[in-house]
Structures are given as C-alpha cells and as structure tokens.
Amino acid sequence: MLRSPLVLPLAGLIVVSLLMGLASENFFSFDNIFNVLRQVSIVGILAVGMTFVILTGGIDLSVGAVMALSGTICAGLVVNMGMPGVVGLAGGVLVGIAFGMFNGAMVAWGRMPAIIVTLATMGIARGLGLIYSGGYPISGLPSWLSWFGIGRIGIVPVPVIFMVLIYACAWVLLQRTPFGRHVYSIGGNETAARLSGVKTQRIKLAIYTISGLTSSLAAIVLTGRLMSGQPNAGVGFELDAIAAVVLGGTSIAGGRGLILGTLIGAVLLGILNNGLNLMGINPYLQDVIKGLIILLAIYIGREWR
C-alpha cells in the first residue's frame, strides 16, 4: 500500500486542505467545497485524456485550444446557422474527436514526436477558432445549455457529476479492460509491447482520440458556464491538465499511474487556487507557489519510487 501511486497525492491533498483550512475559516464551508469542485471540473475532464496520453509516454499540448474550438463550433452551429442545440453539441464533440484522431495518426503512423504534433495542432485549432468567430465570442445560446455549466442535481453541481462519470468510465477502461493493460504496457516498454502482439499504433490512435473527446466534453461544460463560444478560452489549460496528472502520481515517462490519482491531483490544484485566493495572495505569487509545489511533487515522487 505504501508503494501505491495514490499514497503521495492523497497525503498531499490532506495536508494542503488542512493548511488552507487553518489559514481561512471559510475554506471548509459547504458552499466553498462545491465551488472548488465546480471550478476544477473543466481541468479535471481535460486531465482524463491527458492521463491516457502520458501513461503511454506521450503529451498533448492541444487540449486547451481544441476545447476552445469545440465550444466555438458548437455556438456557431446553434447561433449562426440556426441548428438545434443538440446538433451544436454533437458538432463540437466531433471536432474534438477529429483533432484527437489526427494527433494520434501523426504520432502513430507518421512517427512524429507527440510534443511537436500537438504543439502544431494547438496553433491550428486556436487559429481556426479565431477565423470562424472573427475573433469575437459567439453568444445567444439557448438558456438550457447553461445547465451543463451551472446547473445542479439536488445540491451537487452538474459539472461535478459530469466529471465523476467521465472518471468512472476512464477507470473501467484502464483497470478492467485489455485496452487499459495495453496502454500501460506501451508506457512501460513500447518495443516489448509491440513484440508481445500489442497493436501499438492502434492504441496510440485511440488514446489521442480519447484526449480529443475529453477536450470536447470539457468544452460543453465551459460553453454552458459562459453561455458563449470563446475562441480565446482555454489558454494554459493544457499545462494545468499536465500538472493535475503529475500531482496525481502519474509518471511523466509513462507506464505508471492511476486515473484516481489524476482526480486527486485536479482537486489538489483547485484547492491550491481557491485557498490562495481566500488568503489574498498576489496572483503572480500564486503562480510561483504552484510551480514550486509541482516541482516538489515530481521530485518527491521520483525519490519515492
């Protein structure tokens, strides 16, 4: 149990929560806890796809831009073209899947470095979103779409339920299927996995497609929250997603990590943001503090293993 990848992230979450609770009397309030979970839902969903990619030793820098493009296309289909909201949502999801498949094809069959491919598609997706929208937000969406961003089921925010369901599906996929075992085997030793009969190229295509899919699902939550398609949204979100995965104990080299650790890492990142805001810490200093904590987490994780 002490060697479990969940030990350090969970310990970090408990320690940071206690420290923030001591520093701010409002931190453990019911409303603030749900506010933290709602705030981390978008990055948390992005981090699901990022976990799949990093487990194979890859990286996806395009998730923030693809999320913005998916939301912009969704809004454009509904507002500019008069399509039903369901069609707009489906269009946005298909955009995310298409970009994920393109990334996967370039990495798997084009044999190009993932960091270069996704850096290029980050620029492509961001540029296409700005061209399509003219650089301006697309507003005027039907009011029911806000349910995905700010709605509640009982007392629980819809984005939180949405995020938990996505994590549950990812857990089943990684821990209870041959596909999940193949993902880990590629991250552990791709050559050995290929010689053992694993279709490594197909698996890579699948995991980048999953990353594109989760980007578009995050776009649904973001679009519902903002009630508009924002072509400039998601800047830097890819770094937050990577940070959540790393803080959750997944090895950046691949082959080791758990999807539940990513969820803990995303919540930990949200608690840091929320607690530092409640304490009135300068926003620029907050970036420094979070960067140092991420470096410390990577160092401790390396020594622990």
Which properties best describe this structure?
single chain, 305 residues, mainly alpha, two-stranded antiparallel sheet, two-stranded antiparallel ribbon, 4 strands, 73% helix, globular
Describe this structure in words.
It is globular, with a radius of gyration of 19 Å. Strands 1-4 form a two-stranded antiparallel ribbon. Strands 2-3 form a two-stranded antiparallel ribbon. The protein is mostly helical and 305 residues long. It has helices at 7-23, 30-55, 63-79, 85-108, 114-133, 147-150, 158-175, 178-188, 190-195, 200-226, 237-247, 259-278, 283-304, and strands spanning 138-139, 152-153, 156-157, 228-229. It contains 13 helices and four strands. Helix 2 (30-55) runs parallel beside helix 7.
Determine the mean pLDDT: 90
The rounded distance between the terminal residues' Cα atoms is 13 Å
Discrete helix count: 13
Which strands sit side by side, in order, in the main sheet?
Answer: 1-4
How can the largest sheet be summarized?
2 strands, antiparallel
Order of helix and strand elements from N to C terminus: HHHHHEHEEHHHHEHHH
Total E-strand runs: 4
The assigned structural class equals mainly alpha
Overall geometry: globular
Query: What level of helicity do the residues show?
Result: over 70%
Per DSSP, what share of the residues sits in E-state strands of 2 or more residues? under 5%
